[in-house]
Specification:
The complex is a heterotrimer of chains A (527), B (241) and C (59).
Chain A (H helix, E strand, L loop, with lengths): L5 H22 L14 H4 L2 H11 L7 H13 L2 H6 L1 H10 L16 H14 L5 H4 L1 H31 L4 H15 L11 H13 L7 H6 L1 H9 L5 E5 L8 H5 L22 H5 L5 E5 L12 H20 L21 H7 L5 H5 L5 E3 L12 E3 L12 H5 L10 H4 L6 E4 L5 H4 L6 H5 L7 E9 L5 E9 L9 H5 L8 E4 L23
Antiparallel strand pairs in A: 1-2, 3-4, 5-8, 6-7
Chain B lengths: L9 E6 L15 H13 L4 E5 L6 H7 L2 H8 L2 E3 L6 E5 L7 E5 L1 H4 L2 E5 L1 E5 L3 E3 L20 H11 L4 E10 L12 E10 L2 H10 L9 H8 L12 E5 L1
Parallel strand pairs in B: 1-2, 1-6, 2-3, 6-9, 7-9
Antiparallel strand pairs in B: 4-5, 7-8, 9-10
Chain C lengths: L2 H32 L3 E5 L3 H11 L3
Classes of the chains: A mainly alpha (527), B alpha/beta (241), C mainly alpha (59).
Chain lengths: 527, 241, 59
């Protein structure tokens, strides 16, 4: 066998793209300025599934998605090279598949078609205004799982290990481990330990998907991946194709090594839509009869999905929309007072149609306050970002979530605009607030309030304690005209647990019907 | 600086970097003051100058946006992000605080220099040098606002800086301690330096047209014998450069 | 009290009484050498006013 096989080159390229993907993931973190310095959402930007379903669901194009068209065009020309050579989840599946030591299963009867029905169902849904493609999109899925589960878990594991060695205080070992720890903190570990409400669930789901490789290698890519299906549809007429010479004696060596279900027995029945161009078959062929090259004409092994099943999938998706909305898990629009969206988020309906739940905003959120929803926004809003101020407030000088959002569900606002964007308003619980309820001085909410003219003001009052002794102190009040609902006050309120000052979404800029004031302050005359 | 820093010393500078604000808003210590001090420390033979604070806003942003990270880099000083493992419970046996987790480096360093900025504050009236020690507190430090002045005095009893340099190059006269409006900022082009932290704060109050005795922590600290509040008893040298 | 004891006692106590004053004087001398209690420096160049303040405090 030759030293530099195509498959070996492919593995190196896969490794490089996975490294790039992870590098960009790590860089999705503030370094103290309001720029990240890297195109961290690159993989999401080139994803045609996200582009297609988002523009269908939200009926917005807004000059988005050009990079996705590039990948779509490349796929139409060259086939599913993205799946075989680039996709980070595909590469992770390859790595996990290496754990399967037994012989590969023979290709299934037609299981590969399932992913097309999944895709069509998602497109059907998005036609009727529900965008759930991001739940299953491999790029979105991988970033979300890393952000919310695997990366936090890895960070905890590393920190606990180094903390333990540090506490043991062993000669030589501890200084060395501290040096390594310091290096890791500067490079790959997060600045602040991330935590997400649904980390376990999301993480186990992801590990489960990887574990499916034990059933069949690249199970996800073969049978389930909707992006793979979309690229498969695009690649049916690609010109980079497989050909088999007369040498072939139908030994079947290629069938077993195929990473997808592209090479059923019989040399002419190669499926362009399934081929990941991994070139394993080329390497495995004992007669060296397989080759890939540019060819004209229509490939022979077509993709027959069955007209009825196609229609059924689209309708299933479409019918899912009203079902989702009448289900007990649905939420009437904007009902939840704690549904505080990130700054610059579109109005709720369009927001849900645009958000692909990739978790980029939650990864980059400087305070970790952005968390995935479970049912706060209805089943339709699963894993969309919500600000939980008790975990982290919205940092006044930061616009990073808007910068990393791949679909503009969170708009990228200039800083001056963002600083006047109301996420909601703060309200004081006088039954818990120390100066109101307990005649105890406290001004933390006022101290912390970041707006240039403080949205929390203090009133000098004289109150009495239980013995009737007069106490002079200051009681806080919220100025709705100035409050932007960033939640810094809620985060730092010393009343533990249920805070004495809290933010609700009432008054948020993005919803006209959600205003409290007759004349809400205008959004930002830019300075 | 040779009076305060000996050759080979590890010096900790504690500016106020509590907020994510640019220098011109006077919510954080002027980076030029911090940079100049770091440089003087090195000139006096310091082995290492470490600059730290436990900011309220995100530390990365505070260090960068305040300009102090850049000033430190120019001077060759090290910006230190607080390491959660380095807080230790310090017995204070004070009026308000019995013990509190404080940042260990403050006690381990050979010399500590307090570099606060002069600002207004909703509760203490002003935030000057003594209030700056809140930036080495760990734990649920926002609880101390319930008895802020006593708490600060309890801290001052155990934290004895070699020197306090109060930055009044720009002072924040309203909406402190966070600021954010340039019209609240007044330019004084002044620094106040001394070894007595109570005296420095007492003089700092006069920059705002107040007296040291108007500031609860200054009054209490002076009564506790931790420093001199009465400016007439101090030898004060005023210099124009 | 014997005369010797009286003399001893007087000498010791007067020395004792004198000592704090002597120390205070020493302290004052040292103090003057070190410079003032507080230095307030005003000027447009921030690095220069910091340096001037430190110089005035005794280098």
């Amino acid at each position: 066998m030759s030293e530099v096989t195509l498959a070996r080159t492919r593995r190196i390229v896969q490794g490089l793209f996975l490294a790039l993907f992870l590098f960009l993931f790590i860089q999705t973190e503030s370094k103290g300025t309001d720029e990240l310095g890297w195109p961290v959402r690159l993989f999401l930007d080139v994803d045609p599934l996200i582009a297609l379903t988002t523009s269908l669901a939200s009926r917005r194009a807004e000059g988005l998605f050009w990079p996705a068209l590039v990948l779509a065009g490349l796929t139409a020309l060259l086939g599913r090279i993205f799946c075989g050579w680039v996709c980070p989840l595909g590469t992770l599946n390859n790595l996990a598949g290496g754990l399967r030591t037994t012989r590969p299963n023979p290709p299934g009867a037609g299981g590969f078609r399932v992913k097309y029905y999944v895709l069509l169902g998602l497109i059907g849904m998005s036609l009727f205004g529900v965008q759930l493609a991001g739940i299953l999109d491999p790029i979105s899925l991988t970033i979300r799982s890393l952000s919310l589960a695997l990366y936090p878990a890895a960070s905890i594991a590393a920190t606990s290990l180094f903390d333990a060695i540090c506490r043991l205080n062993l000669p030589l070992v501890t200084p060395a481990s501290e040096a390594v720890y310091g290096l890791l903190q500067k490079t790959v570990l997060p600045f602040r330990q991330p935590w997400s409400a649904q980390g376990v669930f999301i993480g186990l789901t992801f590990l489960g998907l990887l574990a499916l490789n034990l059933v069949q290698r690249r199970f996800w890519c073969r049978f389930l991946c909707p992006l793979g299906a979309l690229l498969g549809l695009l690649s049916r007429r690609s010109v980079l194709r497989r050909s088999v010479s007369e040498e072939c004696d139908s030994c079947g060596a290629c069938v077993g090594v195929c990473q997808a279900d592209a090479v059923p027995a019989g040399k002419d029945r190669w499926r362009a839509s399934e081929c990941l161009l991994c070139s394993n078959c080329d390497d495995a062929c004992p007669k060296n009869a397989v080759s890939f090259g540019l060819m004209k004409g229509r490939p022979r092994g077509g993709l027959d999905l069955g007209r009825r099943k196609v229609m059924a999938s689209i309708f299933a998706g479409a019918f899912a929309v009203p079902l989702l909305r009448i289900s007990p898990l649905a939420r009437p629009r904007m009902s939840d007072a704690k549904l505080i969206r990130p700054p610059g988020a579109l109005a709720e309906t369009t927001f849900l149609q645009s958000c692909v739940r990739c978790g980029e905003c939650m990864k980059v959120c400087i305070t970790g306050g952005l968390q995935p929803t479970l049912l706060e926004a209805g089943l339709e809003g699963l894993w969309t970002p919500v600000l939980v101020p008790r975990i982290g407030y919205c940092e006044f000088g930061c616009t990073l979530c808007g910068q990393v959002c791949p679909t503009g569900a969170i708009r990228k606002l200039p800083l001056e605009r963002k600083q006047q964007e109301r996420l909601g308003h703060a309200a004081i619980d006088r039954g818990r607030c120390l100066p109101f309820a307990h005649a105890t001085p406290c001004i933390v909410c006022e101290e912390i309030c970041p707006t240039p003219k403080k949205a929390i003001w203090l009133e000098q009052v004289a109150v009495k304690d239980r013995n009737g002794r007069p106490i002079r102190l200051q009681q806080p009040h919220v100025d709705l005209a100035a409050c932007i609902g960033c939640g810094a006050c809620e985060k730092h309120c010393p009343v533990v647990g249920q805070p004495a000052i809290y933010v609700t979404s009432a008054g948020e800029s993005r919803e006209e019907e959600h205003q409290i004031l007759l004349q809400p302050p205008p959004a930002a005359p830019a300075k | 600086m040779k009076r305060f820093v000996a050759a080979g010393d590890v010096v900790v500078l504690k500016p106020n970097i509590g907020w994510d604000r640019a220098p011109q808003y006077a919510a954080t210590t002027n980076p030029d003051v911090v940079g100049a001090l770091a440089k003087l420390c090195y000139e006096a033979g310091a082995k290492k100058v470490r600059i730290l604070d436990n900011p309220v806003n995100d530390a990365r942003r505070c260090y960068r946006q305040s300009g102090i990270a850049d000033a430190a880099a120019t001077a060759g000083a090290e910006m230190v992000y607080m390491d959660g493992r380095k807080y230790r419970d310090v017995r204070l046996d004070g009026k308000a605080l019995k013990s509190w987790p404080l940042y260990g480096e403050i006690f381990e360093a050979d010399k500590v220099i307090n570099v606060p900025v002069a600002k207004t504050h909703g509760l203490s009236g002003l935030t000057l040098g003594m209030k700056n020690w809140m930036g080495i507190m760990g734990g649920a430090r926002f609880r101390v606002h319930q008895r802020l002045d006593e708490s600060l005095v309890d801290l001052v009893r155990v934290i004895r800086p070699a020197l306090t340099v109060l930055d009044a190059v720009r002072i924040l006269t309203a909406n402190g301690p966070t600021g954010g409006d340039l019209s609240d900022v007044k330019r004084l082009d002044t620094v106040v330096a001394g070894t007595d932290q109570v005296a420095v704060d007492s003089f700092g109050a006069t920059l705002f047209g107040m007296k040291g005795s108007d500031i609860g922590s200054v009054r209490l600290a002076a009564n506790a014998g931790l420093g001199v509040m009465d400016l007439s008893k101090l030898q004060i040298k005023k210099i124009g450069v | 009290m014997k005369r010797r004891d009286f003399l001893k006692w007087t000498a010791l106590s007067s020395a004792g009484l004198a000592l704090p004053c002597g120390l205070a004087a020493l302290g004052r001398m040292a103090h003057a050498a070190r410079g003032p209690d507080l230095v307030v420096v005003r000027g447009t160049s921030t690095p220069q006013i910091v340096r001037a303040a430190l110089d005035a405090l005794g280098g």
